[in-house]
Amino acid sequence: MPKDSLTGExxxxxxxxxxxxxxxxILHFASSKNRKxxxxxxxxxxxxxxxxxxxxxxxxxxxxxxxxAAKQAAEAKEAEVAASKASKKG
Length: 90
Prior knowledge:
The chain is mainly alpha-helical. It has two domains: 43 residues, CATH 2.30.170.20; 47 residues.
């Protein structure tokens, strides 16, 4: 499966466009939109950047939630241990 030279996504071989430059480099594009954006030197696309940022934000929020859950579990365990020590003394 070729990989799109602009976005980096994989696509099926019969689809897409293959561009061979005069210096011999071969570029694969999933669509004519990607080929035109590459030829107009639009290498930094807003929709690609926004997709990457949204995926990064989701991953970061999951990490934060997991850290908070671990902290709450640790606090609950400490409270349980303290309660058991108090019941043994009394």
